[in-house]
Amino acid sequence: MTSTGCVKWFNSSRGYGFITNIDEKNGDDLFVHHSGIVVNQDVYKTLTTGEYINYDISEKDGKKYAINITGIKGGKLLCEQEKRVKKEEDLKDNDTMEAN
């Protein structure tokens, strides 16, 4: 069953963090590792604090953690969108330079 959560924090350099399950009242924070992040592009797998996500819950050695992490309703994660935004900013910079 897919759950919904919010990224509490994520350390991009170490590749892990925690998310808060918002489907359950007083839901426990869940560990998340970059290997559980699902992206459709060749991007650096990371999560952003405050980002809402969908995920499945798995368990190992009595500890629960998030897997199959995607954007809401299977949409893109912010890490997949930043690349596009950056390109748009680069295009604006190039247009400004050409106008001068």
UniProtKB/TrEMBL annotation:
<dbReference type="Pfam" id="PF00313">
    <property type="entry name" value="CSD"/>
</dbReference>
<feature type="domain" description="CSD">
    <location>
        <begin position="2"/>
        <end position="71"/>
    </location>
</feature>
<dbReference type="InterPro" id="IPR011129">
    <property type="entry name" value="CSD"/>
</dbReference>
<protein>
    <recommendedName>
        <fullName>CSD domain-containing protein</fullName>
    </recommendedName>
</protein>
<dbReference type="InterPro" id="IPR012340">
    <property type="entry name" value="NA-bd_OB-fold"/>
</dbReference>
<dbReference type="InterPro" id="IPR002059">
    <property type="entry name" value="CSP_DNA-bd"/>
</dbReference>
<dbReference type="GO" id="GO:0003676">
    <property type="term" value="F:nucleic acid binding"/>
</dbReference>
